[in-house]
Design goal:
Length: 368
Amino acid sequence: MNVSKLEKDVLKRVPVSKPPFGIGDLKKTIPPHCFKRPLIRSFGSLFHDLILIYSLYYIASNYIPLLPQTLTYVAWPLYWVAQGFMLVRLWVLGHDCGHHAFSEYQWIDDVVGFFVHTVTMTPYFSFKYSHAHHHAHTSSIEFEEVHVPKRKSDTLFTEFLNNGPGTVLRLFLMVTLGLPLYLFFNTFGRDYGKFVNHFLPQSAIFNDRQRAQVVLSDVGIIAVMYALYHHAMTQGVQSTLFVYGIPLFGMSCLFVILTYLNHTHPSLAHYDSTEWDWLRGALSTVDRDFGAFNWVFHDANRTHVVHHLFPSLPHYHAVEARDAVKPMLGEYYKYDNTPLLKALWRDAKECIYVEQDYNKKGVYWFFK
């Protein structure tokens, strides 16, 4: 099969008719043990990642300063890249906790998730609740929580940024600043008609029952910021940036790339309220295969479809669960193994804005 045929298959649009199966049918195809979340296995993953992170930190802080200065210009960037990968790997475990996919006990999930996300400067409960909205309304034009597509009426995107330099600018801003912009200003998120962010307990993102936990998330972030301030005052600002700040920036960039590529694809539809339903919304996601990077992401990139169908599946069973449901999903399952950077450029260039399907009202596709 030639390259052009492979690319055509990858870009083939998913069906938008209601599937002939339901979520119950899909669940029956998955071995029951896949839904088990044994503590020893989950904590094994957590401690494994923490040991790797601490080992990198220990080596960097104790041995890189002893190298000849010329070698530090290579050693520090290698550390930044490696630690950025490890932090996003850890972050994925915190995300699993928010879905009750870490253990059989909600309180353990929340304690672990609060620790993991807080040390990676993500407000755990705030993100948990907004992310739940995303899972509840995936690919809904009106109610999707994040990576909300632009309409053709947004002339900034359709006329001024719909070109090569515009694509570069959009990608640069999204990848480098996407996570903090989303957390602080809800950029790339749902339009609530007012200012909202993940740190204000009164934000429209949250209901009254959730606001106290938003405050707790804020307190956790403040505590980490104080610890970083103390480290900067005792060890130096440069040391704090080198061992934590720059790797955290790398984690933020990788997080945005991961989530963007799992929810943005020329072949995926979006729906308005006349057509949207939860199952078709969940199926408007794509699994990506990034080769060696799959390990970095705990396979989250290549099991995202089954994750949207069954969010409480632990990551170590997700590949088996995905393979079990694929035969029933058939053409409703979207998979793309385009290399990461090529996929990022292609989809940023092709997925500029959505327009309604000419033949099916309520269904929207990306156009460039």
